[in-house]
Amino acid sequence: MSAVLDLPKTIDSQTTFYGKIESDVVERVILHNVSWETYEKLLADNQDVVNPRFSYCDGDLEIMVLGYQHEVLKHRLSELLVEIARVLEIDYEGAASTTFRREKKRKGFEGDATFYFKNAELVRTKNEIDLSKDPPPELVIEIDITHGSLPKFPIFADLGIEEVWRFDDETVKIYRLQNQDYAEVGESTCLPGVKSETVTDLLFNAQEMKRFDWLKLIHQKIKQEIRKK
User: What is the pTM of this model?
Assistant: First the structure.
C-alpha cells in the first residue's frame, strides 16, 4: 500500500470565531467495518508522513488531512498551555500527535496535542508508549472547527484521558472525565486555577499580537488569576 492515500475530497466552508474557513479540512473520509489489522497497517504505511491523521473507534476509521488554519490553532493553543504550565511551575511532557491505541479497547487516535503532567517523569525516558502497560496522556487538545468528524470523546474516555481542551467555533471548553463520560468544567485540573474563559481570551489575543507581547500577556493574566485565589 502506498504511503500517500488518495482520499475523496470534502469541502468545508463556514464562518467561525477566527473568520471564514475555506476547506480547512481539505480531505476527510470515514470508513466502516475496518479491521484492527487494517488500521495497524495504515499506521505503519504512513508513520513517516505528517498527514493523514487516523482515528479508530470500534471498526470506524476516520482519515483526515488537515489544513493550515487547523495547524495554526493547534500550535497556538499548545504554546499557550505550555506557557501556563511554566508560569505555574508545573512539570509536563508533551507527546504532540503521538498515536495512542489499544487493541483490547478497539480504540486509537492521534490528538492535535497531548500532554503528561503527573506522569511526566515516568514517560520522559521512554522511546515508545504502550497503553497496555503505560499510562495515557492526562490532557488532549482537540481542534474541531469544521465538525462532521468521528466523535473523539468515546475514544478518549475508553483510553482514560482525564482532561480535554476542545476549541470549537468560538470558545475553548474544558472537559473532565467523570464516570466514563466527559463533563464540561470551568477550570482545569491539570493546570489548577486556570479558567476556560481565560484560555479562550488568550487564544483570541494570539491572532492580534506579536508573539513576544502575547507571551508576556499570558504570564501577566495567569499570575493575576492565581493571585485572586
Answer: 0.88
Q: Specify if 211 maps to a domain.
A: yes
Q: In CATH, what number is assigned to the domain containing residue 116? A: 3.90.1570
Instruction: Tell me if the bond preceding 52 is cis, omega within 30° of 0.
Output: yes
Q: How many domains does the chain have?
A: 1
Grouping H, G, I as helix, E, B as strand and the rest as coil, residue 100 is strand
Angle at 58 between CA 12 and CA 1, to 5 degrees: 70
44 falls within a domain: no
211: CB partners within 8 A, 6+ apart: none
Residue at 137 is within a domain = yes
Q: What is the pLDDT of residues 209-226, one digit of tens each?
A: 999 999 999 999 999 988
How confident is the model over 185-206, as pLDDT tens digits?
Answer: 999 999 999 999 999 999 999 9
Taking the mean position of all CA atoms in its chain, how far away is CA 219? 23
List, in sequence order, every beta strand (DSSP E) within 46-138.
53-57, 60-66, 93-94, 99-102, 107-110, 113-116
Range of the domain at 196: 68-227
Task: Give domain status of residue 12, yes or no.
Answer: no
Chain segment 24-63, per-residue pLDDT in tens: 545 789 999 999 999 999 999 998 887 899 999 999 999 9
Q: Are 64 and 8 in contact (CB under 8 A)?
A: no
Q: Name the pairing type of β-strands 163-167 and 139-143.
A: parallel
